[in-house]
Each structure stands twice: as C-alpha cells, then as structure tokens.
Specification:
With about 170 residues, this protein is mostly helical. The chain has seven helices and two strands. Strands 1-2 form a two-stranded antiparallel sheet. A hairpin with a 4-residue loop joins strand 1 and strand 2. Helix 3 runs antiparallel to helix 7. It starts with a helix and ends with a helix. The relative contact order is 0.11.
Length: about 170
C-alpha cells in the first residue's frame, strides 16, 4: 500500500523500495525485507517475441545468415586443429558458443515464419510446407549437437527451400 512521505522520512529510508505494480497502476513503497513483494517480483520478467500485430514484415535473410554462420563456425573449428593450450581451448569454446547461438536464432526465425506468416491457404500451393519446417527445425537441433559440415549443408538446403517458398508465396 502507498505510504505517505512522513512515514519514510526517517533514518531507515535505505530499507524502503519503490515498486511499481503494473496490474494496479500504482507505486508502492515497500520495506526491503518484505517477503511477499520479493516473491511477487520474482515472476515479473521481460518477454521477447515477434509482435502479434499483423504487420506483414517478414524476411528470410536472418534465417539464411544464421545457417551460413553455423557452417562457417564448423569450418573454423576444423581449421583449429588440436585443442592443447588455453588459447585454442578458448577459441574452441567461442566457436561452439556462436554456432549454437546462431542455430537457435535460425530455429526462432523458422518458428516465426511457420506460425505467423504461413496461413492455411499456403498449404494448397505448398503441400509439403509443414514437413519442410519441421525437418528444418529438427536440423537446427542436429547442428547444435554436432560439429558436422554435412549437417550444416542439410540445414542450408532446407532453409534455402523455405526461403524459396517464402519468395514464391509473395508473388
């Protein structure tokens, strides 16, 4: 509950937190050790998603770029050789981290196109639409799990097919 200025103007001001409640549109001044508010604020987290407004702005460049980056990271790993010293181990870790990050980004872009852009009327023109997207999403997982150029090539092939379907659907 909101408190007036006289109540927190004392020497214990450092124990008071200013908390905004988005559901009640109010600002509360809460004692720092109040367990209820600590529990309540744990569940307020940022949400990251493509907007649900039908903006019509969709593209496949991010997805293609992410798949190409995965392949390039595997090539860099193959060029690295043995991981003996700390510098090589650090480089190996960074390569794998970037490969997994871009495979995840590719999968997210696939899901956005699959769920937001393509509609049931596109199934008439592309009967294998769901199969392609499902295989591409599974392939992103395989690319994250392995350091194989063949798996990256399969992902690039599937992503290129989906990009072609996307371009054809715009015509």
């Amino acid at each position: 509950m909101p408190i007036n200025n006289r109540e927190y103007q004392g020497r214990f001001i450092r124990f008071i937190l200013r908390v905004y409640d988005p559901w009640m549109f109010q600002i509360y001044y809460v004692h720092k050790h109040n367990n209820f508010w600590r529990f309540y604020m744990r569940f307020i987290k940022p949400v990251y998603a493509h907007c649900d407004v039908p903006c019509g702005i969709y593209e496949t460049d991010t997805m293609l770029h992410a798949a190409q980056t995965c392949k390039r990271m595997v090539e860099k790993y193959n060029e690295l050789g043995d991981v003996d010293d700390a510098e090589h181990h650090n480089q190996f870790t960074r390569i794998v981290m970037h490969k997994e990050e871009h495979a995840k980004k590719c999968k997210e872009q696939l899901y956005i196109l699959w769920s937001d852009y393509f509609k049931p009327e596109h199934l008439e023109k592309f009967p294998d639409l769901h199969t392609k997207f499902w295989l591409a999403a599974k392939q992103c997982g395989k690319v994250k799990q392995t350091l194989s150029l063949e798996e990256c090539d399969k992902l690039l092939s599937l992503v290129a097919d989906i990009a072609t379907m996307f371009a054809d659907s715009k015509k």
